[in-house]
Amino acid sequence: MVQRRRRRTEADFEEVPVIDFTLAERDPEAYYKQLRFALEDVGFLVFSNIPGFEDGFQKELFATATDLFGRPQEWKDALGTANSHSLRGYFRADTLPGPHKAYAEAYRFGADLPAPGEDAPFWLRLHEGPNQWPAASDLPQFREQMNTLFSRYHALNLALNQHICHLLDLPSDGLDEFFPTKTIEYNSAIWHYFPLTPEMKKAENGFVQGMHEHRDPSTFVTCLIQSRAGLQVQNHAGRWLDVPMVPGGVVCNIGMQLMKLTGGKLVATTHRVNTLKISQDRFTIPYVLSTRLEKEIRPLPQFASPTAAKEHVAPNPKIAKLMSIPDPLVRSGYARLSLFPAATAKLYPKEFEEAHQLGIV
């Protein structure tokens, strides 16, 4: 009788690793040993000492975020995502229905591109369009600061792609084919998580939802800077662990698309924001370098065998339904619809109802 070869099991972890980014040049052997454990077994890490992400630069950004969200509600609503078919601008996450509700408000960005025509497919109109920028007279440095950050994030992502290729024994440009070449496309937002209230302190299960538990379904890598702690990851035993607050640090995690590309060798880990950990206003700015929407993600040949992958927790049912949609373009549109149900139900009623019937929203 032929025995089936079993998948490998990832090592469990009790803390999120912190890796000195400069080790990549100073001590590559030590760097890639740490990076391998972080990406294959944890799915999360915090980089320290990344040039351009110094603590002073991050504090300037968070000071601007404090100014942005401190404006009157009417001012913020005038820049709301309901005004944008590509869902750029301000929104209140604590008013979202269902699991995407978060005890927070946010301001969303993407690549600054012209809006597609009315005849364009819904998924393209959701992904492409201009940003909504506050008037320069209100926030004079805002646009320049954010574009500087986006440029530095882009450079970091290019470097990380090469480092990941090294781990996977791919050519240094082995991931390039999955990213657009004509434009730099990305998704980003400034998040303002509201602080804990006295009533919330009574929570009995140790958790108050700042952001629901999830894995990133449509990304390769997510990078994030944070003003204070609050992010948690779930280890393989089911315990929730705090992501450490490192001044000048950048949190990075694997998304489900890169996990799929590597046949599960790299792991996308469940994470959440716990408001019980947030005693003061918390600001974060995540960034995702967008992959080509039209390119289907399949395991690379060397990772197509189940024996090459490690066992991981299955995605939640809605994510599983989303990932089962065969057309990557339509799937990307439904993924975006699910994040902003109130706005997209009005802007895209037909497609929203279709997503609802499929059990995605």
UniProtKB/TrEMBL annotation:
Provide the alphabetized UniProt keywords: Iron, Metal-binding, Oxidoreductase
The answer, when asked if Iron is one of the entry's keywords, is: yes
* Domain Fe2OG dioxygenase per the UniProt entry, residue ranges: 185-295
- Has UniProt tagged this entry with the keyword Iron? yes
Q: Please list the GO terms describing molecular function.
A: metal ion binding; oxidoreductase activity
Which PROSITE patterns does UniProt cross-reference here?
Answer: FE2OG_OXY
Top-rank lineage group of the source organism = Eukaryota
- Tell me any Pfam family this protein matches: 2OG-FeII_Oxy
Which family does the similarity line name?
A: Belongs to the iron/ascorbate-dependent oxidoreductase family.
* PANTHER family found in the cross-reference section: 2OG-FE(II) OXYGENASE FAMILY, PUTATIVE (AFU_ORTHOLOGUE AFUA_2G00750)-RELATED, OXIDOREDUCTASE, 2OG-FE II OXYGENASE FAMILY PROTEIN
In Swiss-Prot or TrEMBL terms, this protein is called Clavaminate synthase-like protein
